[in-house]
């Protein structure tokens, strides 16, 4: 395990400053891109609906393929209830995404702690967390509502507890609970168990057995008697795919693939690399959702990159080339003692013992080994040097052995010759070491071969240091170029509501209280807006026959739903699109169900509207604005407005300022049913408020720009004389 040294208060404050800065960066970017429309995950809406239903103690059945995670839904529902996110956010999806954002910040802190406890330096840890906090790929992933974000937070928490210095039983029990929570949230978290077991076995094998027993007990209960309430299932594999995500940050993907392989060769990162390789291998399994796997893999690969980079900068070549000349090779076991000399400013013999007998080679170049009276102190199983004693007692060429570790250091040359200069750091002793300095010169007075000239060593050192600096510069430039492409691809939306919120507002104004047939996304949005859940029917209710409904609200996935639920086809018989919001994958369509079938013998209405509109623009009593005149000539005005404007013109001159569009209706091909009239506003108001039956408007409102008249949807046929 990593050796822990006391940390000063200044270093603790520096670490705290770094973590707070990284948290501010991660949080700010995730808030900015919280409502980014792309990439979109089809199963996200079902998770949001389940969370809302669980938090409001109601029932919901999704259309299928969204996966099952009761424990994950419970965590999200509890967080949204405590924070009041549903009442504060613009949409239900944004409310649950706030909780996912908090989980992402927790992952940021846990990544820092895990990096430090694995032995990464402060700046290597900061680089790993910075990559996770600012990568466009991580931003796109960690804004989506997938339970794997919660699972990876639990898994990292377990690893942090396992790598804790001087961990006690309570910490290991807490780690077992965290691992159990991670697996119950997402079954893919099982791939973190090898890393947890590996790290725990390094520290305390007996504790590893305890954690394994507790974890098996919990999983046995969760997947046995409590399987109906706790057992999770993966969602179906849908877009976006790995290629879609990789397009946001291709350099990170390449570096991550290299780090997964190289991490297996570094002792510090080997357990995490094993987990990363297993997760990456699941991407090749058909049916496994790529987004879920990447959500678990995203915090792992930056740690591997930082660990591999740190190991590469500290590597100084093979052991045979590390120390030229007759320098002492590494000993048997785990420790090397390069020489023993008195510590300056300190009386008595040099220290010896487990982990403490470290004497830098450089000091040997500045002083001779002094004469010592009596034998040197023996080591009980660790580094002991007794060569000087043998020399003083007339035993040249024969090393005095001592200590359980049989540590032998030849001191004759130290007493007669200057030791060669050393610039390498001396490793610490951990016991049972054998250091054989100047083995080829046993019993000989020939001095060792000196080291290369200082100038050559300095040039070699500069070259060795330049390589990692150049590699780091290349990586930084490549990552910056990758991010410059990935950030614009996310496109944060200025409208936090989106098409679904616009459809919700349209339904409130035109179909309030009606029974609706909705998809998963619309169910969560309308239920959060206060629509009675008893008036909302999901596609799952159409297993045999759809319940009676007046309207339907579906996104772009209605074709797949109709194939899965054939009863939807009968419900959409005779339906017509009334309003369309958004475009592409985010398009939402509102359908009017149960419309009477059109009379095939009836003439089309559009030519009649265009002919009547042309007549109105030619009237001397009507003064339309240029835009309003164009709308009239195109035949895009409701026939009730055409008829009433013609009647009003017979009473008084009429000014038509505009035919304002009702949001979403132009895209659905509906005629415009609002008009803004100017001039003689008192007469206009009295005229329209006095209309009856078919020509009675839905509202007449006086505004600073004139009188705004709005008619309800669906004008009855036959109000205009057909053309020809």
UniProtKB/TrEMBL annotation:
Q: Which domain of life is it from?
A: Bacteria
UniProt entry keywords in alphabetical sequence:
Membrane, Transmembrane, Transmembrane helix
Q: Is the Transmembrane helix keyword given for this protein?
A: yes
Q: Give yes or no: UniProt keyword Transcription regulation.
A: no
Transmembrane region positions?
12-33, 94-113, 120-138, 144-162, 174-196, 208-230, 242-266, 466-483
Name of this chain's protein: Uncharacterized protein
Q: Which organism is it from?
A: Amycolatopsis rifamycinica
State the organism's lineage.
Bacteria, Bacillati, Actinomycetota, Actinomycetes, Pseudonocardiales
């Amino acid at each position: 395990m990593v050796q822990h040294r006391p940390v000063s208060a200044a270093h603790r404050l520096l670490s705290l400053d770094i973590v707070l800065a990284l948290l501010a960066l991660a949080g700010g970017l995730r808030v900015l891109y919280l409502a980014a429309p792309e990439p979109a995950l089809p199963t996200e809406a079902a998770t949001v609906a389940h969370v809302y239903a669980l938090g409001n103690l109601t029932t919901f059945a999704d259309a299928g393929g969204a996966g099952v995670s009761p424990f994950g839904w419970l965590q999200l529902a509890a967080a949204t209830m405590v924070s009041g996110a549903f009442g504060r956010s613009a949409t239900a999806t944004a409310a649950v995404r706030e909780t996912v954002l908090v989980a992402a910040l927790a992952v940021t802190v846990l990544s820092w702690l895990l990096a430090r406890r694995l032995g990464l330096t402060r700046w290597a840890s900061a680089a790993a967390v910075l990559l996770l906090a600012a990568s466009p790929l991580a931003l796109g992933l960690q804004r989506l509502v997938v339970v794997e974000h919660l699972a990876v937070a639990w898994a990292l928490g377990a690893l942090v507890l396992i790598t804790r210095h001087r961990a006690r039983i309570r910490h290991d029990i807490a780690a077992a609970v965290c691992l159990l929570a991670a697996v119950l949230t997402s079954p893919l978290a099982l791939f973190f168990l090898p890393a947890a077991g590996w790290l725990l076995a390094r520290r305390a094998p007996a504790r590893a057995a305890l954690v394994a027993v507790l974890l098996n007990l919990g999983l046995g209960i969760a997947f046995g008697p409590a399987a109906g309430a706790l057992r999770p299932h993966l969602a179906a594999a849908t877009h976006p795919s790995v290629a879609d995500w990789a397009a946001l940050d291709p350099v990170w993907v390449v570096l991550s693939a290299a780090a997964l392989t190289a991490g297996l060769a570094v002792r510090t990162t080997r357990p995490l690399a094993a987990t990363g390789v297993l997760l990456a291998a699941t991407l090749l399994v058909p049916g496994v959702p790529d987004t879920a796997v990447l959500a678990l893999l995203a915090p792992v690969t930056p740690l591997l990159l930082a660990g591999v980079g740190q190991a590469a900068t500290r590597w100084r070549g093979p052991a045979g080339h590390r120390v030229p000349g007759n320098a002492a090779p590494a000993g048997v076991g785990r420790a090397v003692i390069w020489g023993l000399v008195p510590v300056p400013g300190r009386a008595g013999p040099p220290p010896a013992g487990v982990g403490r007998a470290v004497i830098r080679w450089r000091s040997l170049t500045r002083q001779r080994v002094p004469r010592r009276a009596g034998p040197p102190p023996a080591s009980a199983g660790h580094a002991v040097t007794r060569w000087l004693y043998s020399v003083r007692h007339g035993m040249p060429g024969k090393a005095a052995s001592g200590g359980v570790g049989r540590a032998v250091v030849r001191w004759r040359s130290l007493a007669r010759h200057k030791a060669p200069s050393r610039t390498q750091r001396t490793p610490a002793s951990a016991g049972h070491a054998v250091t054989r300095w100047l083995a080829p010169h046993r019993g000989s007075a020939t001095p060792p071969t000196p080291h290369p000239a200082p100038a050559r060593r300095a040039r070699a050192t500069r070259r060795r240091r330049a390589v990692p600096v150049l590699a780091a510069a290349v990586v930084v430039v490549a990552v910056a170029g990758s991010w410059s492409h990935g950030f614009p691809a996310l496109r944060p939306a200025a409208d936090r509501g989106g098409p679904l919120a616009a459809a919700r507002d349209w339904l409130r104004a035109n179909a309030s209280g009606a029974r609706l047939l909705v998809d998963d996304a619309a169910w969560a949005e309308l239920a959060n807006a206060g629509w009675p859940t008893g008036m909302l029917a999901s596609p799952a209710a159409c297993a045999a026959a759809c319940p009676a409904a007046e309207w339907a609200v579906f996104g772009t996935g209605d074709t797949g739903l109709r194939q899965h639920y054939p009863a939807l086809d009968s419900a959409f018989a005779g339906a017509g699109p009334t309003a369309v919001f958004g475009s592409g994958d985010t398009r939402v369509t509102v359908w009017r169900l149960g419309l009477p079938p059109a009379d095939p013998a009836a003439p089309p209405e559009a030519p009649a509207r265009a002919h009547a509109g042309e007549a109105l623009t030619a009237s001397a009593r009507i003064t339309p604005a240029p835009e309003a005149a164009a709308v009239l000539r195109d035949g895009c005005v409701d026939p009730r407005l055409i008829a009433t404007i013609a009647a009003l013109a017979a009473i008084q001159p009429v000014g038509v300022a505009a035919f304002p569009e009702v949001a979403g209706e132009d895209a659905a091909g509906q005629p415009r049913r609002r008009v803004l009239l100017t001039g003689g506003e008192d007469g206009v108001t009295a005229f329209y408020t006095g209309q009856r039956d078919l020509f009675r408007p839905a509202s007449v409102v006086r505004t600073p720009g004139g009188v705004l008249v709005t008619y309800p949807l669906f004008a009855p046929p036959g109000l205009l004389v057909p053309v020809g």
